[in-house]
Amino acid sequence: MTTEVRRDDAQSRYELVLDGQVVGIAEFRNNGDCLVFPHTVIDEPLRGRGLGDVLVKGALDDVRARGERVAPTCWFVAEYIDTHREYADLVAR
Known about the structure:
Layout: E1 3-8, E2 13-18, E3 21-30, E4 35-42, H1 51-65, E5 70-71, H2 75-83
Parallel strand pairs: 4-5
Antiparallel strand pairs: 1-2, 2-3, 3-4
């Protein structure tokens, strides 16, 4: 099982790819100051396996590498940041 998190700027989302198939997305809007994350979803049959964490971690790592900030309006992204404090500095204030 191979996973990859990739950014698709044309569709304004991060995608979680599992064995070549997109199985999850984290949508974002670039408001100029930061990326707003309003919605994250993993395909129903794959939920509960930690793939949401893989997706959000990959997205946040990419955000950091690009020098961007986030506004986590999606409860899942906000909760991930709350429990993984090493990403707290990415939150736009």
